Structures are given as structure tokens and as C-alpha cells.
Amino acid sequence: MMPGFELLYQAAALCLTYPGDDFRARLPLLREAAPQLREFADHAAATPPGELAAHYLQVFESTEGNSLYLSHWRGISREHFQELYSSHGLELTGGELPDFLPAVLELAARTGNTDVLTEHRAELERLGSRLAGCGTPYASVVEAVHATLPAGPATG
């Protein structure tokens, strides 16, 4: 049985944050909790910490167009995202901006509200495609999230 999307979203949020000191310790749990992310978890476990951190910075901070900030993809204000957290009685901590994809994934995991992810389905698909084009294992994480979202209307 596949885990619910809440567990996948929480695990994906961890995968898409900077791989700090406690990241490696969480990989075995992440791998078991979210089978969809095993490819990424196995890669991260086999990659030296410094190399993994450098790769994260290269992919998300040095490569134009691989932004994890959803307002980058569409002109929705960050206030819109902040209002969403407030409407669920949640507050961001740690200084991250409210449109940061891992924070939005955590919001969806905690509240069950996937509306903001569904609204950004096309942007997540583009991000996943860009990451796949770069040959990074982060593509599989974004693609796993994208796969949980209902199909959007056809665009012409």
C-alpha cells in the first residue's frame, strides 16, 4: 500500500531543503516512509555530504530557472501564500519565505490542503522537466509530488 500524500509531501519537503547536518540521519526513515523517493534517498546516501550540498546549491541557487520559490514561476504575491498559512493557524519559522516549495509541501502535509500545489501543477511539471534535463536526482522528487496532483485543464 502506498503512503498517503501527506507522508510523501513531508518527505519531499525534506529532500528539497538544503542537506544540512541532520539530513543524512533521516535518509533511512525517508526511504522507508516514501517509496516514491527511494531513488533520491539512495543517491543522497551514496553521495558524500559536501558533494551533495554543493550539488544542491548548483541546482537550485546557481542554475537560472530551477527556483523552489513558487512565486518565481507565476506572478502570485508571497502575501497570498502567507494568508494561506494564517488561514490554517500556522506560522512559518526559520526565516524561510512562504512560497518556498518545501514549506508549501509541509503545509499540504499538515493540513491536507493541496489547493496551492494543484494551482501550481503546471509550474511543478516545468520544474521537474528542467531538473530532469539537468540530470539531477532532485527531478524524481518533484515528479513524485507532481504525480499526486489531479490533472489540470488542457491549455492551448
Structural class by sheet pairing and helices: mainly alpha
Report the count of strand segments. 0
Radius of gyration: 15 Å
Helix segment tally:
10
Order of helices and strands: HHHHHHHHHH
Percent helix, as a range, is: 55-70%
Which spans of ≥5 residues are poorly predicted at pLDDT below 50? none
| CA-based shape | globular
Q: How far is the N terminus from the C terminus?
A: 37 Å
Q: How big a fraction of the residues is strand? A: under 5%
The whole-number mean of residue pLDDT values reads: 85
The total number of structural domains is: 1
For the sheet with most strands, the description reads: none
Report on the architecture of this protein:
The protein is mostly helical. It has one domain (6-148). The protein is built from 10 helices and no strands. The protein has helices spanning 5-15, 23-33, 38-46, 49-62, 70-73, 78-87, 101-111, 115-119, 121-134, 138-147. The model has no long low-confidence stretch (mean pLDDT 85). This is Nitrate reductase molybdenum cofactor assembly chaperone. One of its GO terms (molecular function) is unfolded protein binding. One of its GO terms (biological process) is nitrate assimilation.
